[in-house]
Design a protein that fits this description.
Number of strands: 9
Distance between the termini: 22 Å
Radius of gyration: 14 Å
Order of helices and strands: EEEEEEHEHEEH
Structural class: alpha+beta
Strand order of the largest sheet: 1-2-9
Strand content: 25-35%
Number of helices: 3
């Protein structure tokens, strides 16, 4: 939960993440990995009292048939900043990934965002 004070790891691109659960196994996310994830995308700029992490834009739980999104990392299907924040994750890992708004706008222009809730 975000109530736990875990520091963010900041990457040179401006993407940052908090590692809540490291996950297990030898396989790690890298370019070319086939992944299936559960995620919620929020717009942090529109945080509210009820949604301090930001207003929900997309949720695999609410917006997909199988409660997950599956793709190949590096295929261009999802924002590169999101994929960058996933690099090195292990199966069943849990991270909060924050992507700078400029990367999100570029991804929207390139049709790399899932359809909103």
């Amino acid at each position: 939960s975000d109530l736990v004070d875990i520091p963010f790891t900041e990457l040179p691109s401006g993407v940052s993440f908090r590692e809540y659960r490291e996950g297990k196994g030898e396989a790690v996310v890298q370019n070319g990995s086939k992944v299936a994830v559960e995620m919620t995308i929020r717009c942090k700029s529109f945080a509210t009292v009820n949604e301090p992490g930001g207003v929900k834009y997309f949720s695999t739980k609410d917006d997909t048939e199988f409660n997950e999104l599956a793709w190949t990392v590096g295929s261009g299907e999802l924002p590169p900043g999101l994929e960058e924040g996933m690099m090195g994750m292990h199966k069943n890992g849990l991270r909060r990934i924050e992507v700078p708004s400029t990367m999100v706008f570029a991804a929207k222009k390139a049709n790399q965002l899932p359809l909103p809730t």
